[in-house]
Write a structure and sequence with these properties.
The chain contains no helices and 21 strands. By secondary structure, the protein is mostly beta strands.
Amino acid sequence: RVREDVAFLDFDEAAYPVDGIVDFTLADVEGDHDVFVQVIDTAGDVKTLSGSVVLDTTPPTLTDIDLNGVEDLEITTQVSLTVGVTGTGADLMAIATDGVVDSELFTPFAATAVAVLPSGDGTKNVCVIAKDNAGNTAGPLCDSVTLETAVPVAPRFTLGGRLVESVVITGAVADTFHVGLVPFGGPNDDVVAVEGAIESNDVDVGGVGVNIEFACARDADGLVVCDDDDGVPGIFLPLFTETQAGQDVRPNLVTLRARDRAGNLSSDSSFAVIVDDTPPTAPTPTNAVCSGADC
C-alpha cells in the first residue's frame, strides 16, 4: 500500500503486488512530499518504507531573446551568432536555427550561447526552448534575422555615358570633379553607400588624401543610384590641384567600394583624375636658310 501519511489506519486500502509498479497520485501541492510504502507478507508481518519527492509543475520563463546583443536584429553577415536569452527557473536550454526545436540537444542554461545559422542567404529563424530539472518547459521563443553574405559588385565610373578608368584634365581646374557611377541593380539592389578615398599617388606630394562617402538610394526605375544630393546623378570628387614644386602633372587616385545594408563590401574600383594645368611651351622659331623652290 502507498500513501503520503505514515499512519496506515485504513487497512482496506488497495494493495499491490510487491513486484509490481504502482501509479500513485500526489496531492496537488507544490513542494516536498513524503511517500510511504507499507509491505505486508502472507504471515501478516508489516514493514514500512519511505521516500521523498518534490512536486514541481511550474515551468520556467523565457522573456526575451536577442541576436548579437541587438534587439530585433534585421540583417547580418555572420553565420555564427551570439544568442542572448533572458529567463528564470531554467536549468537547460536548446537552440534551433531552423525555426523548430525538435532534435536539438539540451545544454546548461546560459545567458548567452553561440548558434551557427544554416548555410545560404535568406531569412533564418532562431528559436530557444528552456527546461527545468523537473522536465517543465518554456518556449519556444523565436527571433528572425536575414543572413546576407553575398558581396555587391564594385562601382564603375562613367563620363559622358561611357565607362572610364581615368581622365586627364587640362587648362583651368576647379577644386572638384564630377564623375558618374553606373546604377546598381539585380543582386546589388540593397547597396546603401559607396565609400573610399581620394589621394595623390605622387610620392613627392606625400600621398595626401581624404576619405569620401556618398549615400545611395533607389530611384523611380528601381535602380540604386549614388550621388551627393545635388540633383545630378553621380558624385563630385575633391581634387588636389595645388601646384607642387617641380610638378606640372598632379594625379588624383580615386578608390571606391560599394557597401550594402548588411555591411558587405565590394572589391575596390579605381579611377585616376590627372590634373595638367600647365600650358605647353610654345616652339621657338629658328633662323633657316633656304633657296629656290624650298623657300
